[in-house]
Amino acid sequence: MDLDARLQNVTIIGAAGKMGSGIGxxxxxxxxxxxxxxxNMKNVYRLNxxxxxxxxxxxxxxxxxxxxxxxxxxxxxxxxxxYKDRKDLVxxxxxxxxxxxxxTSVLNYGVDLGMAANSHLIFEAIFxxxxxxxxxxxxxxxxxxxxxxxxxxxxxxxxxxxxENAGLGGRLIGYHFYNPxxxxxxxEVITANNTTEELKVAAGELGxxxxxxxxxxxxxxxxxxxxxxxxxxxHAIAEVDRIKSTxxxxxxxxxxxxxxxxxxxxPMGIFQLIDYVGIDVFQCILKVMRTHLPDDKLRSRLVDxxxxxxxxxxxxxxxxxxxxxxxxxxxxxxxxxxxxxxDYFPISEEWRKRIDKKLGVxxxxxxxxxxxxxxxxxxxxxxxxxEQLKKMDTLGAEMACSFLRKTKEIAEGLxxxxxxxxxxxxxxxxxxxFFWLYGPINxxx
Length: 445
What we know:
The protein is of the alpha/beta class.
C-alpha cells in the first residue's frame, strides 16, 4: 500500500495536545491537497482526531480552524495552482476559504478509539508514559489491519521496547516532531532493529511532503534531542548547586540562565527552556531515560522538589508561558522561584546589576541571538564572539567557556555511544529543533 492510499484514512491519538494538534494541522492540509487531485475525486478522506474528553476536542476544533486559515494564507501561490480550474474562485480570500473548507471536511472528532479501526496510518502523541502507550497500541493492534503503520511522537522511550511489548512486528517508528509541529522543521526519525523497510520508506516520503528536515537517531532512550537537552539541563542544575554559596540560590539560577542565553548566544536561557518544555515533562523524561539506560546520574532532587511544590512550567492554551523556575510577565522573566521560601524572588534592576557586575561584561560588539538569526555573516560574528570570550578574564567568560566545553562533551558522547550517527546529525537537531545558531560540536572551544 502506497502513502497516498494510507493517507485516505489517518488517525491521531492524543489529538488535542500541543503536539497532536499540530500534527493534525499538517496531515489535514496534506489530505486536502490529495483530495483536490482529479484522480482522487471519488475517494473519501478521513482524519480521525481522538482525545480523552469532549471538552478537549471543543478546543481542538477552534485551534484546527484557526491554524488551517493561517496556513492557507501563507500558501496562496500553491493554492492558486490547486484551484486553477475553479473559475468561481477569483480573490485570494475565496481560495483560502475553499481550501480551509476542504481541509476541515476531512476531520472527524471523537473520544472512541474504535474510530481508528479503518486507518492504515496512525500517529500517537499522548503523554510520555510507556505503559499507557503500550496499552493503546495493543488495543489498536487488535482492531486495525495487520498492515497498519504506527508513528509515535515519543521523545525518549525506545521504539523497539514499545514495538515488542505491543506486538506490532516492526510496524512502529519514532517520528518525533518538535514543538510546535506547524512551525518547527525538524523531525527526529527513530527506527528499531525490526522496523520494516516499507515503513522507513513511507516515513521518509511523508517527511518530504510535509517539508520537514528528517534527522535519523538510533534507538537509545532520549535519542539526540533529549539526550542532549536533559544532560545540558542537569549540568546547569549542578552548576547552580556549585555556585549558590557565592550568589545564593536565586542568584545562581539567574546566572546560569544568563550565561546560557547571552554569553552562549542561545534563543533562551537553560531554565527558560526547561520551563518551556515543562518541569514535570523534564522529570518524566529523566525517569524514562533512567529506566532504559545504565546511568544513575539521570536524576535531579531539585526537579523533584519543584514538581512536588507543583511548580511545573509549560504553556497556557494561548501559548503564553506558565511560571516555573522563573516567573513570567508577557513571557519575560521577572522573578525566580525560591525553593526554600516556596515563593518567587523578584528580579529588581538593582539586584540584576549587582549580579551582572560579578559576571563581567559581554564581549565587545555583542549581538544577541535574535540579531544574529538572519545575519548573513553570523558564522563570522559568532567566531569573533567566542574568540573574544576565551581571552576575557571575567567570571562570566570563564563560566561560559566551561559550559560550552560541557555542551560539546555531551554532544560528542551521543556520537561515541551510538545515539547519533555523526556530529552533523547532533548539530542538525540542535540548530533545527532548538534554534541554536551553531551546533554543540564546533571549533569555538
